[in-house]
Design goal:
The chain has 22 helices and 12 strands. It has helices at about 5-25, 30-45, 45-75, 85-135, 140-145, 145-190, 190-235, 240-245, 250-275, 275-300, 305-330, 330-345, 405-415, 435-440, 455-460, 470-480, 485, 505-520, 535-550, 560-565, 585-590, 590-600; strands at about 365-375, 385-390, 395-400, 420-425, 430, 445, 455, 495, 520-525, 550-555, 570-575, 575-580. The longest helix has about 50 residues, at about 85-135. The chain is an alpha/beta fold and about 600 residues long. It has a 6-stranded mixed beta sheet. The chain has 2 domains: about 30-345, ABC transporter transmembrane region fold (Up-down Bundle), CATH 1.20.1560; about 365-600, Rossmann fold, CATH 3.40.50.
């Protein structure tokens, strides 16, 4: 499939994918709750760590809240001028110091457990995402940019980690603080406790109202951040193309627009969420003043001591502190949930159909294609009524204008995409009835787009045959004519390379060497020599001719020698086979192939 058709289909897929992601991450409360429950399911795996964190949080809070009682007792030990019970005060202070030390140890242990719990959970989520990417169909991957996918696995997972860490640190302690504080307050004064409970919902309503409006902005912020990451990855990864076509200003303008959108959503999200803390603090101040006023009245009535009022005022602060703490990190928590929604949208994407347990083995190379149909966009027909029967050892060339479906046929043969109708048989076995791995193991592919991993030359060549000996690798490299440049590398086969450390022609030679090493029963060559100089191409073509002897081969190319030597030439246009035959018979028909041949190869003399 040509690049322009790929881009068109990718844009269609991306628009539908963005719509589905937007629906999956809608700003209503239900979606937020669903995301939270999904995160909790991952946390549940580490329930022992969670339980330990809760116990330590409870211990830390109880000890912290018991300290004000000791302070109150110490204050009540001061009866008046010349009536100070120093022994009682010293005992209270010594117990306070001991409790502070125990509280510090409990808090330290709780934070260590929370760190471990958080990073374990995010590690599991990130690992699950990476594993799921391996089983996603190419249609989903084509519909989402590489930068967006990387952003979900890396940046969004980091944001989730930060939010969970703050959440664990504040949530457990906060809940226990609220419960224990109310119990201690009831032990001191029932009227004051009732007053605090009655005024508490006001703080809840204020925080909830603001949070509900800011969450939607955090979702937009996260989505726009993903678009920005994708744009940066695209422009930086293709900087040579950007400079070659003078696209610098347009690239900067595109980034400026996305960056301004991100700034706008980030500003709004932070602004709305930042209102939570001062609003709840204002309500808390009213509660504190109410406790002081009611407590003073109770002291005058003789039902409360001055030390008791100091304890209640301390508890009023302690009771409202969790609400302030949670509201202060509401930005991180909401951002974390928005990021989690994007990660779960990836994890829950529909995987490719499961592989059958049956394997394809001992392949001779017979391929039968029966009236298949396929479309990238199901509303528009593309490949239609495509039929072909190939005997073992046959060399098939597929030609046609740009976007006619040549590469698409190759993708269907390899099951990178699944057909909508019809059957594809290899040695009489339907390719949908055998595992993808066993099918692809029987094909050797050399594409126009090369791929190398970061590693040694040896590892890149032996990618499809890890147990290959050095002699086998060198023999394959010589047959592929890549040995000349390999032996000149600093460490030969053990030279560490990356995708950018070799020329395009050298990378393609290494990809050809891979196929020469594995010697599969069937070959797919898609413009396999497009980046190689003419002299080397002649040598490679001779090697291919030798390699293709006795092997079923599918060749997508415009090279005269490749097309002329094919046993069957399929001429495609608009997803259909309009002509078929060998070079001589097709030229005799004086049809579309003849026109294509004359337009592409005019001036080329036959040898």
């Amino acid at each position: 499939m040509s690049q322009d058709v790929k881009d068109q289909n990718q844009k269609q897929n991306q628009s539908s994918a963005v719509e589905s992601d937007a629906m999956a991450m809608s700003g209503d409360k239900a979606s937020g709750k669903e995301t939270l429950w999904k995160v909790l399911r991952f946390i549940g795996v580490y329930r022992l760590l969670l339980l330990a964190s809760i116990i330590l949080a409870a211990l830390s809070v109880v000890l912290t809240l018991y300290i004000p009682i000791l302070f109150g007792d110490a204050i009540d030990g001061i009866l008046g001028q010349g009536k100070v019970d120093f022994d009682h005060i010293a005992g209270c202070l010594s117990r306070i110091l001991g409790l502070i030390a125990l509280t510090s140890l409990a808090t330290f242990a709780m934070n260590m457990i929370n760190n471990r719990l958080t990073y374990k959970v995010v590690q599991d989520i990130r690992g699950r995402a990476i594993r799921h990417i391996q089983v996603l169909p190419l249609s989903w991957l084509d519909a989402h940019s590489t930068g967006d996918i990387v952003g979900r696995v890396i940046a969004d997972a980091d944001q989730l980690s930060d939010g969970l860490l703050l959440g664990f640190s504040q949530l457990f302690s906060g809940v226990v603080t609220i419960v224990v504080t109310l119990i201690f307050m009831l032990m001191k004064s029932v009227p004051v406790t009732i007053l605090v409970i009655l005024l508490t919902p006001v703080s809840f309503f204020v925080a909830r109202f603001i949070a509900s409006h800011s969450f939607h902005m955090f979702q937009k912020q996260t989505k726009t951040r993903g678009e920005q990451t994708a744009l940066i990855e695209e422009m930086v990864g293709n900087e040579k193309v950007v400079k070659a076509f003078g696209y610098e200003k347009k690239a900067s303008e595109r980034f400026r627009r996305v960056n301004e959108e991100l700034q706008e959503y980030s500003w709004r999200a932070v602004f709305f969420s930042s209102l939570t803390n001062p609003s709840t603090r204002a309500v808390n101040s009213v509660i504190y003043a109410g406790v002081a006023l009611l407590g003073s009245h109770l002291i005058l009535a003789g039902s409360l001591t001055v030390g008791g009022l100091s304890v209640l005022l301390n508890y009023a602060n302690q009771y409202m502190k969790p609400f302030n703490d949670i509201s202060s990190v509401i930005t991180e928590l909401q951002n974390a949930m928005a990021c989690a929604a994007r990660i779960f949208a990836l994890i829950e994407a529909e995987p490719q159909t499961p592989d059958p347990e049956k394997d394809l083995s001992a392949v001779s190379g017979e391929v039968d294609i029966w009236d298949i149909a396929f479309s990238y966009d199901k509303s528009k027909a593309f490949i239609q009524d495509f039929g072909l029967r190939v005997k073992p050892g046959t060399r098939v060339a597929i030609v046609g204008p740009t976007g006619c479906g040549k590469t698409t046929v190759i993708n269907l043969l390899m099951r990178f995409y699944d057909i909508d109708r019809g059957e594809i048989l290899v040695d009489g076995e339907n390719i949908h009835d055998v595992s993808r791995h066993s099918l692809r193991k029987n094909f050797g592919m050399v594409l126009q787009e090369t791929w190398l991993k970061s590693g040694t030359v040896r590892e890149n060549i032996a990618f499809g045959k890890p147990d290959a000996t050095e002699e086998e690798i060198i023999t394959a490299a010589k047959e592929a004519h890549s040995w000349e440049f390999i032996r000149r590398l600093p460490n030969g086969l053990d030279t560490i390379i990356s995708d950018d450390s070799l020329s395009q022609g050298q990378k393609q030679l290494l990809c050809i060497t891979r196929v020469m090493l594995t010697l599969p029963p069937m070959l797919i060559l898609d413009e396999a020599t497009s980046s190689i100089d003419t002299r080397t191409e002649i040598l490679i073509q001779n090697a291919f001719d030798k390699l293709m002897e006795g092997r079923t081969s599918f060749v997508v190319a415009h090279r005269l020698s490749t097309i002329r030597g094919a046993d069957i030439i399929l001429v495609m246009r608009d997803g259909k086979i309009i002509e078929r035959g060998n070079h001589t018979s097709l030229m005799a028909q004086n049809g579309f192939y003849t026109h294509l041949y004359n337009s592409q190869f005019a001036g080329v003399r036959e040898v």
